[in-house]
Automatic annotation (TrEMBL):
SMART domains: S_TKc. The chain crosses the membrane at residues 249-273. CDD domains: STKc_IRAK. GO terms for cellular component: plasma membrane; plasmodesma. Residues 332-605 form the Protein kinase domain. ATP binds at K360. The lineage of its organism: Eukaryota, Viridiplantae, Streptophyta, Embryophyta, Tracheophyta. PROSITE patterns: PROTEIN_KINASE_ATP, PROTEIN_KINASE_DOM, PROTEIN_KINASE_ST. This is Receptor-like protein kinase HERK 1. It comes from the Eukaryota. GO terms for molecular function: ATP binding; protein serine/threonine kinase activity; transmembrane receptor protein tyrosine kinase activity. It comes from Senna tora. It is a single-pass type I membrane protein.
Length: 661
């Protein structure tokens, strides 16, 4: 083994002719036969091959190409290095890596595809072990909202387990300390992992995400990030201003007011006169019937200056004067607040005739306020159903956005499941509530020529009256479904995190099956009595839908039910309920049942619980979704309304045949 340079002779210079039995000279370079140097070659089994020189043509006539060594098992060449220098380990110079390994119980390709987990940005401090810096990303966001930040990690750079330790930061707060992806991914290199965090925007309306080194591994500090998701959460606006910004705002407002004072006075008189004319014109405006009791009208009287007559059970929904709303809510007494949402506060109220109402007052700072206000009026003015909350009236005076509904004595379904200390619901009560909610959604999907998609189905939007009868509420995000010749509606993604249909989120294509997915999450929420997203729990339990589906697929759903229901649910009823929820949460909308099918199977689960069905429950409970869908399609608009006053058991008994199907 000889070097060939006349001007520079490196100490370590190896030229090897693989498979040769004698040294080979090419120009002024001498290649050593590897068979003569046993100390550099380690192999147990190989084959030597050679080719006659006459078969080598063109530029490949070098004697180097006449011999070869064919390895039939793992082998290696070992070279001693006498002088440390710029030697490169070729094993690290990989141009394309396909090392992502999705494991059971971890993220799937639906969480993020291999193109996300197979690429990354790393700190890479190999050139300087003393490096100590963070890699930071910065994003502009809207002020006053909370955001869910999902960080995606996959260690495709380490050669061994437990080599990579790093920290993650969100808005300069330590979000994850000494992250060891080896432990978090069950000691599998290249296994994906993600971490969810909730944060608010900073004063500069930014969200900053950083990764940086951990002191645990100080030899060669490193940090990685494969992907990042930021989702704006639907919640009431959060004030982020401080005293300094308040002073600036006050100064600006003062200057502006002083400048335009004269113009404002003139504009005030103009608007005042025009408003009075509009109010007089609006007194005769009516909406489609909104009766909640189907009874005789009881008037409040005409004590208000505009002379509008109001009624809790009138045949029409009126524009209600602001003064009447103030009186009904004791001038929006804060002690009368019964709920707060993205649209605004909800007050308990009472009309002059003694009828209790719920008054939703829009927040003028709500970005979706006017659109939701208009949508709610347009939608609820069309609907009349036992399981949909009724709209009594609205008020748009003085730039207000106020909606007046029938009052639901027992509040939200969510408050009866967790977090409020209310008595626990029985299994039968929960099934009846789910059935009532399903009937309301089924009516939305099928009651008119074009389906209406709720888009925000969740336990907080299912209200209960004094008899625990369920009614679907909050139609501010609702949207009419596709035309007959279309399969979906293309629209921006809206909804509540944890209930959102992943297919709708990915493709921005809305169908009724998006409501079905959200309702499937509600079903598991009813069964387990816990929040759909709980960041305080271990990672595998944070998302209720994913966690429940794992237990459902293992056939052990009884392990995670509400402890107050333990031993009180018949196994066949629980099995049918779990199967129904599982089908609702199918990855693709075409694989999910319709709300009519869901309704039928929930009815069946109730019958199994009450042991009314004749014959073998196991036999009767098989594949009901697929078999019973034609029966549901036979319901027409009038039929649904006619059955709304009949008990669930009577409706079911009319449809099930004792001899089976």
């Amino acid at each position: 083994m000889l070097s060939f340079s006349a001007t520079f002779v490196p100490l370590d210079n190896y030229l090897i002719d693989c498979g040769a039995t004698s040294n080979t000279s090419v120009g002024n370079r001498n290649f050593a036969a590897d068979s003569l140097y046993k100390k550099i070659l380690s192999t147990q089994r190989d084959v030597l091959a050679n080719t006659p020189s006459k078969s080598i043509t063109s530029s490949a006539d070098s004697p180097l190409y006449q011999t070869a060594r064919i390895f039939t098992e793992s082998s290696k060449y070992t070279f001693s290095i006498n002088q440390k220098g710029r030697h490169s380990n070729l094993a690290t110079n990989v141009s394309s890596v396909r090392a992502v390994k999705y494991i059971d119980g971890g993220p799937t390709e639906n969480t993020a595809p291999p193109t996300v987990y197979g690429t990354l940005t790393e700190m890479n401090s190999n050139s300087d072990p003393r490096s100590n810096f963070n890699v930071t990303w910065q994003f502009d966001v809207d002020p006053g909202f909370q955001y869910l930040v999902r960080l995606h990690f996959c260690d495709i750079v380490s050669k061994n387990l437990n080599e990579l330790y790093f920290n993650a930061y969100v808005n300069s707060y330590l979000a994850a300390k000494d992250l060891d992806l080896s432990i978090l991914s069950n000691n599998v290199l290249g296994a994906p992992y993600y971490k969810d965090l909730v944060t608010a925007s900073t004063e500069s309306n930014k969200i900053r995400v950083s990764v940086g080194p951990s002191p645990v591994n100080s030899d060669y500090p490193n940090a990685i990030l494969n992907g990042l998701e930021i989702m704006k959460m639907k919640a009431a606006a959060i004030s982020t201003s401080d005293s300094n910004s308040n002073k600036k705002v006050a100064l600006i407002v003062g200057v502006v007011l002083g400048t335009v004072c004269a113009v404002a006075l003139a504009g005030f008189f103009f608007v005042f006169c025009r408003r009075r004319r509009l109010v007089r014109q609006g007194q005769s405006k009516t909406w489609i019937p909104l009766s909640i009791n189907d009874g005789t009208s009881h008037t409040m009287g005409s004590k208000y200056s505009n002379g509008t007559t109001l009624s809790a059970a009138s045949n029409f929904g009126y524009r209600i004067p602001f003064a009447a709303v103030q009186e009904a809510t004791n001038n929006f007494d804060e002690s009368w607040v019964i709920g707060i949402g993205g649209f605004g506060k909800v007050y308990k109220g009472e009309l002059n005739d003694g009828t209790k109402v719920a008054v939703k007052r829009g927040n003028p700072r709500s970005q979706q306020g006017f659109a939701e206000f208009r949508t709610e009026i347009e939608m609820l003015s069309q609907f009349r159903h036992r399981h949909l909350v009724s709209l009594i009236g609205y008020c748009d005076e003085k730039n207000e956005m106020i909606l007046i509904y029938e009052y639901m004595e027992k509040g939200t379904l969510k408050s009866h499941l967790y977090g409020s200390g209310l008595p626990s619901l029985s299994w039968k009560e929960r099934l009846e509530i789910c059935i009532g909610s399903a009937r309301g959604l089924h009516y939305l999907h099928t009651g008119y020529a074009k389906a209406v998609i709720h888009r925000d189905v969740k336990s907080a939007n299912i209200l209960l009256d004094e008899n625990l009868m369920a009614k679907v509420a909050d139609f501010g995000l609702s949207k009419t479904g596709p035309e007959i010749d279309q399969t979906h509606v293309s629209t921006a993604v809206k909804g509540s995190f944890g209930y959102l249909d992943p297919e709708y989120f990915r493709r921005q294509q809305l169908t009724e099956k998006s409501d079905v997915y959200s309702f499937g999450v509600v079903l598991y929420e009813v069964l387990c009595a816990r929040p759909v997203i709980d960041p305080t729990l271990p990672r595998e339990m944070v998302n209720l839908a994913e966690w429940a589906m794992k237990w459902q697929k293992k056939g052990q759903l009884e392990q995670i039910i509400d402890p107050t229901l333990a031993g009180k649910i018949r196994p066949d009823s629980l099995r049918k309920f779990g199967e129904t929820a599982e089908k609702c949460l199918a990855d693709f909308g075409v694989d999910r049942p319709s709300m009519g099918d869901v309704l039928w199977n929930l009815e069946y689960a109730l019958q199994l619980q009450e042991a009314v069905v004749q014959g073998d429950p196991e036999e009767n409970s098989t594949n009901m979704i697929g078999e019973l869908s034609p029966q549901i399609n036979n319901f027409n608009h009038d039929g649904v309304d006619d059955l709304s006053g009949v008990s669930m058991s009577r409706v079911f008994s009319q449809l099930v045949k004792s001899e089976g199907r």
